[in-house]
Amino acid sequence: MATKRLTPGFSDQVMSLVKSLRSDAPDCVAAGVVDMSTGMLLSYETVDNHPPEVLDLLAGATLDLFQGRTVVMIEDIFKERRGITDDTHFFQEILVNSDNLTHLFIRMNEQQDVVAVVVCRKSVNVGMLFAQARRVVREHSL
Question: Which domain holds residue 116?
Fold first, then answer.
């Protein structure tokens, strides 16, 4: 999986994904891509200025959401009970609502350790958010 990130054009693909998420997701105020294998925020666009330390923490928070110790334990139990032996993950999408915003985290289909993040106003139509974000992620397979 990691070799794909080393191919020419990967950075362009990531930036294109972020731009598409920002323009196509309804009520979007920020979008980004996190590489959980390196713990890095690969690219982002936002309508506001955020302190660098908040942006740095986004990658860590994303890692905790998808691959925190308890989440991995739950996935391992499901795999064991279902007889699954591969490295696929059960948690593909996570929606988080804060006081004013809705945050959607989506694993990329091909690169399971790469997550697209979309942040929208809380008034967003969640169904439309999922539909548009899934479409964009599908069109931008990394």
Answer: 2-139
